[in-house]
Every structure is written in structure tokens, then in C-alpha cells.
Amino acid sequence: MVMVVRASITEIRETRERRRRRVGAHSHIHGLGLDEKGRAKPVAAGLVGQVEAREAAGIIVQMVREGKMAGRGILLVGPPGTGKTALAIAIAKELGEDTPFVAMSGSEIYSSDMKKTEVLMQAIRKAIGVRIKERRLVYEGMVKEIKFAFARHPFNPYVKVPRGARLTLKTADDELTISVGEEIAVQLLQLRVRRGDVIWIDAETGAVHKVGRAREAGRKYDVDIYRLVELPSGPVKKEKEIVHTLTLHDLDMSAMAQRAALTALLGLELVEREIPAEVRKQVDQQVMKLVEEGRAELVPGVLFIDDVHMLDIEAFSFLSRAMESELAPILVLATNRGMTKIRGTDIEAPHGIPLDLLDRLLIIKMKPYTRDELREIIRIRADEEEIPLTEEALEVLTDIAEQRSLRYAIQLMEPARIIAEREGRRKVTAEDVKRAASYFVDVRESVEYIKKFEERLLR
Ligand SMILES: Nc1ncnc2c1ncn2[C@@H]1O[C@H](COP(=O)(O)OP(=O)(O)OP(=O)(O)O)[C@@H](O)[C@H]1O
Ligand SMILES: [Mg+2]
């Protein structure tokens, strides 16, 4: 029996290794790659070149950290494939996990069955964090002894249900035995709390949290999914500061859930796709109160809107208004358009953005890449996608990136790899890339192709 299980475990591992990793288009980017003085290293953190833009972004990150960016925004401007989306992601990585980062494309507002402004509102509220600090009375320690008391199920005499439990918790300095009721006992069973586990129980709500296994208790099995943790110190019963970060949207949703529960209780049916303004107002008031009492902190995050010229006038004016509110995230917008009509109007404006919004934005210019930079980006991507290229293949791809587009060159890599694999080669050659390029054309070519037919039809 044991043998069978072992065999299947190694089998799983093998298939995992064989299967190729799925990688996102920007997975090679880890940050802005700046030194202590905020200077960009030519190639760092997965980013290549674009030195001024990265250094500018570094300044923005510092302004965000110092709380000087709320209600303002930046606009990344540059031709397709110059790394606007890449830079926005680098900013998010640099800000760290605790800072909410929401990414959307301008066209998303049309794709939902919600109102356009509601889509934006939800994105804005997802981009604002609320760090809530609470001091709670808890029992914390390593489980030294645990015993459950069972009773018969009231309706089914063959099933036993927990009635309560008695457990002894131990810290480096203290030891305490407590009895708990049915609800906590059920949680202890569900979490499979055993001797040697470090847990804490919220004295008010009765919520049980399993932290991990005490190092001194050691592992029960060789293979274990638990984290090993130190034995807590101090008394078992104590006040503990708990910090959790939620977003305003999370709070809106839980307020909505409460409302739904209430109306269900009253026998009313409530189908709301959109969150009513009064719910949000209530949430805001509660949050502001917590902030004033020093029990919560606002964490303005980043709302990234790619292809921002896809927004229409209604969305833009909503966005401008929202930026004025006390609770606003930092806007990071990106576009590859120059002078163009603001959607929904006949007015031409720079980047298709109304002037009142443009006025609030710091603009960062992305430069076209040099040949060496293009080659380096392709090299990094090939590495990330685990596609071995010969030097000649790399040169051909660089040619393609220069003459057509970087995006197109990157997209050809995987087809070229498959062509090479079918030929029994591990490394992708120049020929493989050329063949891939003959199978898959770029946009310019596909448009020309159709145009030729149209001309023939008109004749
Ligand atoms: N400076 C760079 N360093 C490393 N990788 C880059 C850099 N610039 C772009 N890339 C990579 O090249 C690809 C295309 O870049 P990206 O999507 O960021 O361009 P974009 O400016 O947003 O283009 P578009 O205007 O079409 O949206 C992505 O895989 C991106 O991660
Ligand atoms: Mg982009």
C-alpha cells in the first residue's frame, strides 16, 4: 500500500516537471531596478533601458510612500510595445504586497453588465486599502493537552457531535488549562488541532487560528505541510495586536451581504448588481471614524488603467470627480495615442483625455528601444519562457522586433520553439523563427492582405 502511494507521488512530480510553465507576458519583471540613489541600472529586475522613465517612476513610488500622491496621477505615454504596462507592473512590485494594485483596461467599462461608472467605482474602491489594527484578548500557546467531550446527535443517535473540549496551552513562560464550548470545539476538530500545534483563540469571537507546529514539538511525519514556528512567550491569556488589510470594496461587499441578509429576514427580495451610494457612504463614515480613533489607517493603492483613450467622456468626468474625493487612489494611466477624439464627443484632445484630467497628471514619456535593448528584452523573455535560442535566431527576432514590433517578435518565440521541437532540435534556429513568421503574420501584413482583395472586388 505504502509503495503505491510513493510511486504515485513521484509520478506527479515527474509530470509537473515535464509540463511547461505558464508565464504571463510580464512575469520577468520584479521591480524598477534602481540603486539607493534612485538611479536605474541598465538591466535590472527584469527591466531593460527606459532609464528616465524608470527613474521617474522611482520618484512616484517615493511620493506614494510619503502620501503625497493621493488624488493625483501619472500618465505613461509611448508607442506600442515600449513597456508602459511593464513599467506599471514594476511600480506595483516596488510598492509591495500591502499596497493594493488594481489593473484594468479602458475598454473593460463596456464589457460588463454594470454601469460604466460602477465598474470604475468598484475599481477605485478595490485600490484603496484599510489597514485595521485591533487589540484583542486572546489565548495563545502550544497545545500541550487536548480532550474532546462528545454527545449524541439530537436527531441521529449513531452520530456523535462535539460538546466541548478541554485544552492546556503552553508558552515559554506560562501554562493554562481552559474549557471551551461546542462552537470552539467544532473549529478545533475542523482545523485538526493536535498536540504540538501553536494556536490562538479570540476570546471575544471564539475564532480559532492555527499558526503552525511548535518547533520544539517537532514534526510528526517526515512530510508535513505545516509551518514550524517558535513557541510563543509571555502569558497564555493576553492582548494581541492584530492587523489586517482590507479594501474599501471588501467592506462595501460585506455591508451589502449584511443588507441582503436583513432583507431576506424581512421576506423581501433584493437583487442588486450595483452597490448603492448610501451603502458606500456608510462604509466611508465607519472607516473615517476608525481612522480618527487611531484604529485604522488608509492605504491609498494604485489604479492602473491601460489604453485609457478607450474611456469615454462620461467615464473621464466620473474619474476626475472621484479623484477629488478624500478617499482616492493613485491613478496610473497609459496610452499609445497622440491627438485623438475623446470618445463620445467630437472634441480632439491630447491622448484623447479631457484637459481637466490631464492637468492633474504627471506625464512620463517612454522612448522607442535601441536595437541592443530590443535584443536584451527578447533574451530575457526567452529565458523566462525557457526557450533556448541560437545567436542567429536571436538576431532574426531582433530584426523582426525592429522592423515590425517587439510584441510580434515575442509572440513568435513559442511557435518557433514548437517547430524546432518537431524537427527534433532543442535550440530554436534562425530558420525556425523565419518559418514561424511565415505561418503567423503581423497586423500590418494581415491588413494589406485583405486590402488587396478589396481592390480586386471593386474592379
Ligand atoms: N524595458 C523593458 N524591459 C523588459 N521587458 C520589457 C520592457 N519593455 C517592454 N517589455 C516587455 O515587452 C512586452 C511588450 O511591452 P508592454 O506590453 O509593456 O508594452 P506597452 O507599451 O504596454 O504596449 P501597448 O501600447 O501595445 O499596450 C512585454 O512582454 C513587456 O514585459
Ligand atoms: Mg500596454
Describe what this molecule looks like in 3D.
There is one protein chain. With 459 residues, the chain is an alpha/beta fold. The protein has 4 domains: 150 residues, P-loop containing nucleotide triphosphate hydrolases (Rossmann fold, 3-Layer(aba) Sandwich); 110 residues, OB fold (Dihydrolipoamide Acetyltransferase, E2P) (Beta Barrel), CATH 2.40.50; 47 residues; 79 residues, Helicase, Ruva Protein, domain 3 (Orthogonal Bundle). It has 14 helices and 17 strands. The strands form 4 sheets. Strands 5, 6, 7, 8, 9, 10, 11 and 12 form an 8-stranded mixed beta sheet that branches. A hairpin with a 7-residue loop joins strand 5 and strand 6. The chain starts with a helix and ends with a helix. The structure holds adenosine-5'-triphosphate and magnesium ion (MG). Magnesium ion binds next to helix 3. Magnesium ion (MG) binds next to helix 3.
Please summarize what this structure is.
The protein has 459 residues and is of the alpha/beta class. It is 40% helix and 24% strand.
